[in-house]
Amino acid sequence: MSEIKISTEVQEDMRTVLRGVDELLVETEFAQKLQKSRDTGVPLRIKLGMDPTAPDIHLGHTVVLTKMRQLQDMGHQVIFLIGDFTAAIGDPSGRNSTRPPLSREQIEVNAQTYYEQAAKILDPSKTEIRYNSSWCDELGARGLIKLASQYTVARIMERDDFTKRFKGGIPISVHEFLYPLLQGYDSVALKADLELGGTDQKFNLLVGRELQKEYGQPQQSVLTMPLLVGLDGVEKMSKSKNNYIGITEAPESMFGKVMSISDTLMWNYYELLSSKTLDEIATLKKQTEEGLNPRNVKVALAQELITRFHNAAAAEKALADFEARFRDGQIPEDMPEITLPGSPLGIVAVLRESGLASSGSEATRNIQQGGVKVDGQKIEDKSIQLEVGTYVVQVGKRKFARITITA
């Protein structure tokens, strides 16, 4: 691509594109694409692929979807690619074992739910929905062998997770090598100008770039977003780690979970999830440093997210319910913050080790008398285990602690 002078408007667009980004490859190249698009009026083709391996989306998934919406609002064509074919293989990224294949029925159910939830972020009227089975099914054995000939085993083995499994003697099935090739072929089929993904997808996205070159196409740029840290402030957001906020959760639950994140982590959530501009976030941060209560800033974030995934009325009600609990003395604004390792931890051990009870017998007695609550819910079973996550634990009317359970 010949050098094009970058206008002030495109420089501003690049500032939005780079917000919260881990890496954009190649940055100067993508700026040229944006300028050419603005000069010609031809929108860029922006691709995001998601395999429907689970039915629900949490806030961690929405980081890349939010970036897609920003590009969509600039006027570019976003393509939400549902990997119904590749889901049957399973993405081996970051895994230390072969992912069990999903049935066609599971994939179809998950795919429908995925898109319905993604539509809460993307503008459905301006989103192109594609399924990669429409071209992968047509490849056949001959096409698949031709595709495999475009990439070497040495290059595939550069993937960190493959290397670790191979050196550790952990089995790698041959079909797993096909996954990055098929994801890359999606970019060829869609003639993508930019592909988005999490940092764990970088290798696969670069394969797409290389395959486009082999097929005589302009190479896509690659944009990776950081993995959102979960409520525990340590691990990436994940259902399996119980440190997530699902976008279909009840408003009151979403509100409480957002309020449980640390004041430091709150700014990361603002940058990756909020629709506020960077200047607006910087102003909020400055106001907080000058004395604004971080709780108020967190409330605003909770309301914004609930409005996006539910509606404004639900956000107002969640706030009213939360404030009523404070007025009634149910939850204090300030409470000790305690981190306990060793998930899962039994509730008796949690109470004892956090100092909310002086002994296991006192903890048991408090539970039996109905005086223990976790996130506002009364605990009646002393055998309950708390997984990784952050919880507001209450004993009696006056003892509170925000307890983070780690692995």
Automatic annotation (TrEMBL):
Keyword Cell membrane: no
Motif window: 'KMSKS' region: 236-240
The protein's enzyme class: ligase
Subcellular location(s) per record: Cytoplasm
Keywords: Aminoacyl-tRNA synthetase, ATP-binding, Cytoplasm, Ligase, Nucleotide-binding, Protein biosynthesis, RNA-binding
Motif interval(s): 'HIGH' region: 52-61
Family to which the UniProt record says this protein belongs: Belongs to the class-I aminoacyl-tRNA synthetase family. TyrS type 2 subfamily.
Record's protein name: Tyrosine--tRNA ligase
Source species: Pelistega indica
